Amino acid sequence: MPALSHGRQPEVDPAGALRWFGEVAGQGLLEVEAAAMSRVLAASPALPWAWFGLPAASAPGGRGVALRRSRYGFDGAVRCRLPLPLASEAFGAVLLQHVFDDGADPRPLLSECARILAPGGRLWLATLNPWSPYRLRWARSGLIARDAGHWQAMLRSSGFSSDAVSLQWLGPRWRVAHGDAGVAAADVFRAGVALTLTKRVHAAIPPPRLQVLRWQGSGGLIPRAQRGSTRGAQRR
After folding, report:
1. How far apart are CA 207 and CA 42, in angstroms?
2. Can you give the pLDDT at residue 121?
């Protein structure tokens, strides 16, 4: 399929800052995230998944669409730019693995994720943790770590509802070979953080009940609810 063009998609070469994930320190984080993605997919609706990741990362197994950042957009199951050539509300889970950590604007892709994710589906976004001592390992690589509050604001501005976003901290704190995941106080210093939310679609407000009108001679039409009071007035 030919590449699709979109004026908002920057032509960023991921071989720059994102190549850090291909080094030993980066692989230590990606290995822990692979297990976390498996748990997300196990709890998601029985629909295909869509994964957006890095050349150095491995897509999850099973039925889905895997797309990796490339110089001109994404490569993988299809070669494309934004907007994505994927059907709306067709995926039970959308996984984003560090595709924004080189400073790319997240809103265009997040807006597309909101479109392709089915109601009840789960969005999982993995990014670097700016509060981790592990940041010294990616220092001067060009990677940019932004806090959870920034990502929550980006999700809201991209079309996701303001429902609660769950956080999980992933990977090593400092030693590359000692990665894990958790939500305890000590886990906030791990190398990565994953935000997870479920796409909510609020039910439409039902229309108000129609008033049933009845003809009252020269008095015109009156609502049924007022008939009793009108009859009482006529008796008096």
Report:
1. 38
2. 95
